[in-house]
């Protein structure tokens, strides 16, 4: 798998890695997925792409920074979201056992210091906003 050296933002940088995410019923993150996350962080650093971004996305999840993976965890789901936030890392989000819906498995960009627009609401400090790479419609850098 190779990355696009002409990527203009972290979402574009992640796209070649999306298909490598394990979509089987296993909810744990495998060694290959861990390797991909480390590689994406290195590529983002090398391209000087860490920073604050104005982003429009079709879907996002607000998940606590820390939680027990084998216990129920509360999260907030967003559709058609516009926000500004600081890209902190990449993540693999795997959520199973949803009532009335299929499970979620996605390579995500993870943001903190998030301001939700248009009402300027902020996410609590103990949460990260995880946005699937395939759900990002537009992304432009606003600060380092």
Question: What are the main properties of this structure?
Answer:
single chain, 144 residues, mainly beta, 6-stranded antiparallel β-sheet, 6 strands
Structural account:
This protein has 144 residues and is mainly beta. It is 15% helix and 44% strand. It contains two helices and six strands. Strands 1, 2, 3, 4, 5 and 6 form a six-stranded antiparallel β-sheet that branches. A hairpin with a 3-residue loop joins strand 3 and strand 4.
Please, what is the average pLDDT? 87
What is the general shape?
globular
First and last CA, distance: 29 Å
Instruction: Work out the number of β strands.
Output: 6
Summarize the biggest pleated sheet.
6 strands, antiparallel
The succession of helices and strands, N to C, reads HHEEEEEE
Bin the strand percentage.
35-45%
Number of helices: 2
How much helicity do the residues have? 10-25%
Low-confidence stretches: none
Structural class label: mainly beta
As a whole number of angstroms, the C-alpha radius of gyration is 15 Å
Topology of helices and strands:
Layout: H1 10-14, H2 31-46, E1 52-64, E2 76-95, E3 104-117, E4 121-122, E5 127-132, E6 136-143
Summary?
With 144 residues, the chain is mostly beta strands. 15% of the residues lie in helices and 44% in strands. A hairpin with a 3-residue loop joins strand 3 (104-117) and strand 4.
């Amino acid at each position: 798998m190779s990355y696009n050296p002409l990527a203009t933002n972290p979402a574009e940088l992640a796209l070649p890695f999306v298909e490598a995410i394990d979509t089987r019923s296993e909810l744990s993150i495998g060694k290959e997925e861990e390797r991909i996350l480390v590689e994406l962080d290195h590529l983002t650093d090398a391209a000087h792409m860490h920073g604050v971004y104005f982003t429009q996305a079709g879907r996002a999840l607000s998940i606590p920074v820390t939680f027990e993976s084998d216990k129920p965890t509360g999260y907030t789901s967003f559709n058609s979201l516009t926000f500004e936030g600081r890209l902190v890392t990449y993540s693999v989000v795997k959520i199973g056992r949803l009532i009335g819906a299929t499970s979620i498995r996605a390579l995500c960009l993870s943001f903190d210091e998030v301001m939700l627009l248009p009402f300027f609401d902020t996410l609590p400090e103990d949460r990260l906003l995880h946005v699937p790479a395939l759900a990002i419609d537009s992304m432009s850098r606003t600060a380092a």
